[in-house]
Amino acid sequence: MTPRIALDAMSGDHGVSVIIPAAINVLKEIEDVHLLLVGDEAVLEKAIGQQPPSILQRLSIVHASQVVAMDEIPSSTLRNKKDSSMRVAINLVKEGRADACVSAGNTGALMAMARYVLKTLPGIDRPAIIAALPTTQGYPVHVLDLGANVDSTPEHLFEFAVMGSVLTSAVGNLTNPRVGLLNIGQEEIKGNEKVKEAARLLSESNIINYIGFVEGDDIFKGTVDVVVCDGFVGNVSLKTTEGVAKMISHYVKQSFNKNLFTRLVGLIALPVLRKLREKIDPRRYNGASLLGLRGIVVKSHGSADVFSFGCAIKEAVVEVRKNVPAQISSQLAELLSERRHVG
Amino acid sequence: MTPRIALDAMSGDHGVSVIIPAAINVLKEIEDVHLLLVGDEAVLEKAIGQQPPSILQRLSIVHASQVVAMDEIPSSTLRNKKDSSMRVAINLVKEGRADACVSAGNTGALMAMARYVLKTLPGIDRPAIIAALPTTQGYPVHVLDLGANVDSTPEHLFEFAVMGSVLTSAVGNLTNPRVGLLNIGQEEIKGNEKVKEAARLLSESNIINYIGFVEGDDIFKGTVDVVVCDGFVGNVSLKTTEGVAKMISHYVKQSFNKNLFTRLVGLIALPVLRKLREKIDPRRYNGASLLGLRGIVVKSHGSADVFSFGCAIKEAVVEVRKNVPAQISSQLAELLSERRHVG
């Protein structure tokens, strides 16, 4: 079955000017995919322009008259943006006309709409946001929750561990991903009551490969595959990562721009630095997934460029092929029977 | 008055082998300082070796028979390590024989002992840990709490803002440091109830220069001088910063080590990269302060080298000269009268 991905084509910092070229690139790169562009029909027609039939036959337009603004309050978008490109893209998943949707829009609104329209999977109380980050080992690490929840209970953290474990094994082809709980020390006595209780729940499960507490610097060491934390903590950690990387990049540019000599050195070092940048390029890691819903929703960074938005579309394609929501459901059912067995 | 700094000379990953050379370097660099080395007398005598009288006359040894291990449980060190180098160094501050102490030992034990021996300042419920981080603007940003507290109330966050504001203006010679609350969005509706209530408390004060919510990536932009957060969040953010910096450094080394060509390029780029490293060298930022106590306690990174431990000693010297605890007390008194005025 060809994955059908609905794209919220109007949202994000750059809208159609980034999303349409990204969509066309993905169609050129992957033969077995169909994209549904959601937004103002006239605008989309114009942005698509002249394309070969091999592209056009795998590209549909679905009209939506509104756009959700980046700073709009989620609850108000639920009431007032029922014909927005974001909402219609989610509706297509609900109606079974698309297998997943991708949006670069307002995260809060996307989560609110997806939750309202698609509903959560049975056994999931709180959906979570998960994304991949680079490690020194070359393979990525997945971190959740990145901001959907601000006061997670130990049970929520346990749910995140289940969902994160399923997604990571599906998209990374890992059989038994190592799951760590983010804490402020590795000793059992450290941390707050929530993480201690979540650690107890995770230790008791035979299904989750729980390896214990990890700290902020462990995220990037490649010693853990899934890092579980409350959304407040995860969001701060993600944004901190972005901030540090930008600061270092700023100083690298400044250092090589200082005078004629350093500019020459910079020119010589350019190919090496470019290769380096590729390895930890945040654009490669674009495409956070909203997990725990009855459908696949991928959130692109608002400022994504063409390459980067393409990565988010491909993330959605992989999740469709692996049928992540069904896998989460079956893992949850297994856990439930594990608990019954224990109880 | 010459600042007298007690050094816990036995703790940290490297003990005397780093701490004694660091102490001697500081005495050479700063004429107006007296250091009290606390630890096993015979070990310290040997480590000091031959030194000119100009050094020896500003160096005393205070014997302590025990050492706190890096993984010891804080509460047990309170009972069982009463003659440890850490405890005796803190006692010297309490007894008025030293104006500050510095330790590279177990953070939890240091906080527990310092709190037990020195007590908190009037009006301070929870001491906090603060440290400086680099920004793209060249000047540092101070972040607190970095792990002393795991479930801070809005009132605690308010206390942290007061203490952070005082320390930052004292050591950074700033008149009105910009204080931001770490959150997962800048809009007022974002975040958990704790930060929302803390924001309300801070907005009402005329003494704190509160600029609103900041996000993880704002820490490094130079747009805020003091970042206030719960200790769990702050610790994760600090460790994340370390982890990202190490990962990037790992990939930089790997890129330049790939083959003969890249190694040559690396050699040419070396002076530029070294200058760059200096700017964001974490060793320069070594020396976290335990704030809110009736005395000055500085925590060095456990793995600090000679240069880095020297920075922590100098942090203590500056805090003594600026009399940070007295300044916090007077700022708190002013706030109290401000509240009475309002009420």
From TrEMBL, chains A, B:
Q: Which SUPFAM superfamilies match?
A: Isocitrate/Isopropylmalate dehydrogenase-like (SSF53659)
Pfam family of this protein, just one? Answer: FA_synthesis
Predominant subcellular localization, coarse grouping:
cytoplasm
What InterPro entries does the entry give? FA_synthesis (IPR003664), Phospholipid_synth_PlsX-like (IPR012281)
Q: Which UniProt keywords are listed?
A: Acyltransferase, Cytoplasm, Lipid biosynthesis, Lipid metabolism, Phospholipid biosynthesis, Phospholipid metabolism, Transferase
Q: Name one GO biological process term.
A: phospholipid biosynthetic process
Q: What Enzyme Commission number(s) appear in the record?
A: 2.3.1.274
Q: What is this enzyme's catalytic activity, as reactions? A: a fatty acyl-[ACP] + phosphate = an acyl phosphate + holo-[ACP]
Q: Under the cellular component aspect of Gene Ontology, which terms does the record hold?
A: cytoplasm
Instruction: List the Gene Ontology MF annotations in alphabetical order.
Output: phosphate:acyl-[acyl carrier protein] acyltransferase activity
Which pathway does it operate in?
A: Lipid metabolism; phospholipid metabolism
User: In UniProt terms, what function does this protein have?
Assistant: Catalyzes the reversible formation of acyl-phosphate (acyl-PO(4)) from acyl-[acyl-carrier-protein] (acyl-ACP). This enzyme utilizes acyl-ACP as fatty acyl donor, but not acyl-CoA.
Family to which the UniProt record says this protein belongs: Belongs to the PlsX family.
Query: Can you say what this protein is called?
Result: Phosphate acyltransferase
